[in-house]
Design a protein that fits this description.
2 domains, two-stranded antiparallel ribbon, transmembrane helix
Length: 413
């Protein structure tokens, strides 16, 4: 084996210029593959992190995935019901005290129960449609994404007593109102109550900044004429990726629709899978192109060393020895290219991580490209490189192993 290895190294060094070109080809492919994977994975991780931070991990509403079974379906084995319309029921989650007590007993996270109702906010002859959310400030702080996004006032001011309201800054701008002004909130039932603005938030999400306002839960229940009602439970877990299991357990026990953040963003998660398939397909294509360079070198060596091969086989080297020698040559080029590609990939990733740019979103913010540092990227890129190198070395190796030494020595090939 040591002799075969020495011969393989001698063959590679004998064609130094071509070997160097092949190594550079592999290293460039590996390096750019690592940098591209780091950038794409970093962007995906950053986006998912923003989803996890800005939305509940599990959201329970007073909806049901399927309508309740009708009495006729319970009595008869086969029943067909058409034109069924749900009753106008505005009660929200039935027996919310028992539901929240059950969550307290086992939930591995925090939650906040609220009452969400549609209405209109009016000020000085102007009005804006709004989703008016009644919350308990104490529990809402643990799950709400807006608590740290206030430009004026604060979320804590909501609990200072009285009829207070906090809203998006774009809604206030649309109304022409500001901190300390009194606006009128009108529910879908027509009931109107005055509220004083004690805080303005800016999340950067237009729908939220223009269309959401928060008041105390008891005030929302009075405004919507739904005493002691809640229709929304938002949950933050210690492990966000445990959300599907938690949602299934809640839905099975309470009967209400519980949606994990993965389900709510199912289309986006599927798009990430497709993007990763495309990314690794491109990596494989790059490595395939580099493999052609290795194939060219090993094929040339096989052709030029035909007589050497014949002499070696005459001396007792087997067909498998010939195959092993040329595969080693291909793998050696692939390994050298991978090592150089690791260094190039690390340098490119460092360069991308140092790129800074400015975003103007309520003020200038200097930020960096999202980069994911993972040894898996290096392993995958090297795996593609070594795989293509092995194949590129094996194909001419089969040809070399089949050569008849007598024909070569006689000059038949």
């Amino acid at each position: 084996m040591h002799l075969i290895l020495d011969i393989a190294v001698t063959h590679i060094l004998g064609r130094g210029r071509q070997t160097l070109v092949a190594v550079i080809g592999v290293s460039v492919g590996v390096g750019f593959s690592i940098a591209m994977a780091a950038l794409m994975q970093g962007g995906q991780d950053d986006f998912v992190e923003q989803l996890i931070d800005t939305m509940p991990h599990v959201q329970v509403t007073d909806e049901r995935r399927a309508p309740k079974r009708q009495p006729a379906e319970e009595l008869f084995a086969a029943a067909e019901i058409s034109g069924l319309r749900p009753a106008d029921d505005r009660r929200g989650i039935i027996n919310p005290t028992a539901a929240t007590a059950w969550l307290d007993a086992w939930l591995p996270g925090r939650y906040s129960a609220s009452l969400r109702t549609q209405g209109v906010v009016r000020y000085a002859g102007r009005e804006a449609g709004a989703s008016i959310v009644g919350v308990d400030p104490g529990t809402e702080r643990a799950v709400s994404p807006i608590v740290e996004d206030f430009t004026e006032g604060s979320f804590a001011a909501l609990a200072s007593g009285g009829n207070n309201i906090v809203m998006g800054d774009r809604m206030a701008e649309k109304l022409g109102a500001g901190i300390g002004d009194t606006v009128a909130a009108v529910s879908s039932t027509g009931l109107m109550r005055p509220f004083r603005i004690v805080g303005l938030f800016h999340t950067g999400t237009t729908a939220r900044d223009e269309g959401e306002a928060y008041i105390l839960l008891k005030n929302a229940q009075i405004l919507s004429e739904r005493a002691n009602a809640i229709n929304d439970i938002r949950i933050k877990l210690g492990d966000p990726y445990a959300s599907p299991g938690v949602a299934r357990r809640i839905e099975a026990e309470l009967g209400y629709k519980a949606v994990a953040w993965q389900e709510a963003n199912e289309g986006i998660m599927e798009a990430f899978v497709i993007r990763n398939v495309i990314m690794y397909t491109v990596v494989a294509a790059i490595m395939l192109v580099a493999g052609f360079g290795i194939f060219n070198i090993v094929s040339t060596i096989t052709h030029e060393k035909a007589r050497d091969i014949a002499i070696m086989k005459s001396l007792g080297f087997s067909r498998s020895d010939m195959q092993r020698m040329f595969v080693i040559e291909g793998l050696a080029i692939g390994a050298a290219g991978s090592a150089a590609g690791w260094a190039l990939g690390f340098a490119l990733t460092m360069a991308l991580a140092s790129v800074r740019f400015e975003l103007d979103a309520g003020g200038q913010e200097i930020t960096n490209l999202p980069i994911a540092w993972s040894t898996l990227h290096y392993v995958i890129a090297s795996g593609f490189a070594l795989g293509s190198s092995a194949v590129a070395g094996y194909l001419p190796a089969r040809r070399a192993a089949r050569l008849n030494p007598v024909d070569i020595i006689r000059g038949a090939s």
